[in-house]
Amino acid sequence: MSIDGEAFKAAMARWATGVTIVTSRAGDEIHGMTVSDFSGVSLDPPLVSVCAAKSSNTHGVIQKGRVFSVNVLGADQQALSNRFASKKDEFRRFEGLDCETASTGAPLIPGALVSFDCRVVAEHDAGDHVIWVGRVESVTQGGGEPLVYFGGGYRGLAPA
Ligand SMILES: Cc1cc2nc3c(=O)[nH]c(=O)nc-3n(C[C@H](O)[C@H](O)[C@H](O)COP(=O)(O)O)c2cc1C
Question: Is the minimum distance from the CB of 52 to ligand 1 under 6 angstroms?
Answer without folding.
Answer: yes
